């Protein structure tokens, strides 16, 4: 059996890093030099996708696809979600308006989310503890979405694994 999980969220939220933290193979990256306001935050950015793989016991595989964060590459979001089971949405808590960012990405992926599972990971809380997780949960509930929200360090495999296990549990229990 093979599964497909999507990682989405704004630039710098940790999508590429999270996939690299848990992938059993070197991550395939489509990085290009940042040339717009993204260059103020980082040197390169994903322009098409990231790809990683987890090999499960018994030969099952989990394919991990990271979307580009910039909305100008949003056409890739629809391409990459085809056949996906769920979305791991990563949000950078140190961004200027992280709750608004979450809303933007939830709305952009809403059709996919409504038909699949969603887990939200809030990154960089070590740099900014505001807003707290409760604000994200409340905003999702206002949007009619019941999804788990976690504080995560995208560099730590155990944090990323918790999100994946949560996503797979939602699917297995038929909560979606």
Automatic annotation (TrEMBL):
Short name of one Pfam family: ATP_bind_1
The entry's keywords: GTP-binding, Hydrolase, Nucleotide-binding
InterPro entries: Gliding_Motility_GTPase, Gpn, P-loop_NTPase
CDD domains: Ras_like_GTPase
Superkingdom of source: Bacteria
Family: Belongs to the GPN-loop GTPase family.
Protein's recorded name: ATP/GTP-binding protein
The organism of origin for this protein: Oceanobacter antarcticus
